[in-house]
Specification:
Layout lengths: L8 E3 L11 H13 L3 E10 L7 H18 L3 E6 L2 H12 L7 E3 L8 H7 L3 E4 L9 H7 L7 E3 L21 H11 L4 H15 L6
Parallel strand pairs: 1-2, 2-3, 3-4, 4-5, 5-6
Helix pairs in contact: 6-7
Length: 211
């Protein structure tokens, strides 16, 4: 990120690795962020109760700790949440009430449609990956339909969640075009307009308008 003007970074400890979080890791994260002017978010952080690679109680503790770090660093958060809608919302609802909270993005949204309005009320942007194109993902598409165009983002989550019609291949950033095309059709808007809107949403959120 430091080497390229148009590349930025987010740094955080994923819930899979929460069990490894300690004061040394915390210091390393803060040091990396402090030494670079290109780190624009703390993340991805959150909860993953699907794989449970780290015990749930530790995930909850580390998620809260990293939110507090974001407060002190004055950074927005990028949140990972899988099979943990209720717990994630409870933590984020409390975080959003803190005057130091500067916003967040729900990365690779995979929750229930009823979660969307609650996240929007907390000021979050919601990002969708290639799984929204999967044939059996109607529930996810119903969730996407609830997101206003000025609050939606798209992403790859590479190397995972390769969108149709390329599913089965290793995902890469170029394939986000297929996700964009699919969602533009879902919203019945021109692809170029949709791409312009999602790009602007990101630039506005991170205050990168002059980049």
């Amino acid at each position: 990120a430091d080497q390229h003007q148009n590349i930025f970074a987010a740094i955080g400890v994923h819930p899979h690795d929460a069990i490894h979080f300690d004061s040394g890791v915390e210091s390393r994260v803060v040091d990396l962020i402090s030494k670079s002017g290109k780190v624009i978010a703390l993340g991805e952080i959150g909860l993953d109760f699907y794989y449970n690679h780290s015990p749930r109680e530790i995930q909850l503790e580390v998620f809260q700790k990293q939110i507090e770090m974001a407060f002190e660093l004055k950074l927005p958060i990028i949140v990972h949440s899988r099979n943990a809608d209720a717990e994630t919302l409870e933590i984020l609802s409390k975080a959003a009430k803190n005057p130091k909270f500067v916003g967040g993005i729900m990365h690779c949204f995979g929750g229930a449609p009823e979660v969307v309005p609650k996240l929007l009320d907390l000021g979050f942007l919601i990002s969708f990956a290639g799984n929204v194109t999967f044939k059996k993902a109607e529930n996810l598409r119903n969730a996407a339909r609830l997101v206003p165009l000025d609050r939606i983002l798209i992403e790859t989550d590479c190397p995972y969640l390769t969108p149709e019609p390329l599913r089965g291949r290793r995902n890469e950033p170029a394939f986000v075009l297929h996700t964009a095309s699919f969602l533009s059709s879902l919203f019945a808007v021109n692809l170029e307009d949709f791409a312009r809107t999602t790009t602007w949403n990101l630039l506005r959120f991170f205050k990168l308008n002059n980049q």
